[in-house]
Amino acid sequence: MNPFRSLSEYETFVYTLPQRYSTIHRSTLVVVRRGDGVAVIHGEIEFPQGVRLAVREKLSFSRTIGQIEGYGYEVWRNQELLYWYDSQPHPHTPELQSTHPHHKHIPPDIKHNRIPAPGLSFTQPNLLFLIEEIEREVLGD
Q1: Residue 89's Cα: distance from chain center in Å?
Q2: Is the dihedral of CA 89, 124, 20, 44 positive or negative?
Q3: What is the average per-residue pLDDT within 8-36?
Q4: 20 to 30 A Cα–Cα from 112, which one of 11, 67, 73, 100?
Q5: How confident is the model at residue 141 (pLDDT cuts 50, 70, 90)?
Q6: Cα-flanking dihedrals φ and ψ of residue 137, to 5°?
Q7: Which residues lie below 8 Å from residue 112, measured CB to CB, with a gap of 6+?
């Protein structure tokens, strides 16, 4: 299944994530259609150890293939924000140009400390990458 072939396939992809990953304790992700071929996804995916992934995506599905128009992903452990990704362009930051506009905010100065994010895309689902990163780097599985 290519979840970016249609909005209905992306909905199925989103709603079946807990069946694909045993580390997902609960998902509150909701796909909200905003017209023909346009949707937003919001909610959280909860993992062990108080870890959760907050998700915001804006999607469009045209005649060809789906595309993420914008996103924000935050990874939390209980009340501590560990890091986040966003697609806000920073065209004048040379160290981010390799993955422009995709980047990750990391401590210590999480708002201003940004690094490239080669695993993210506008033309592929990002949720698989994010879940696997959490399993590997945050949960230690």
Answers
A1: 16
A2: positive
A3: 94
A4: 67
A5: low
A6: -100, -25
A7: none
Residue 101, preceding peptide bond in cis (omega within 30° of 0): yes
Q: Strands (DSSP E) along the chain, which ranges?
A: 26-27, 30-33, 38-46, 51-61, 66-77, 80-86, 103-105, 114-116
Cα 52 to Cα 75: distance, rounded to the nearest angstrom: 6
36 and 27 in contact (C-beta within 8 Å)?
A: no
Identify the sign of the CA torsion 121, 73, 133, 46: negative
Say if CB 71 and CB 58 are below 8 A apart: yes
Residues shown for the chain: 141
Domain residue extents for the chain: 7-138
Please tell me whether the overall predicted TM-score, pTM, comes out greater than 0.90 for this model: yes
**What is the rounded CA–CA span in Å between residue 112 and residue 80?**
17
Within a 13 Å sphere around the CA of 72, how many CA atoms are in the beta-carbon half? 6
Per-range mean pLDDT, top range of 15-29, 63-77, 78-92: 15-29
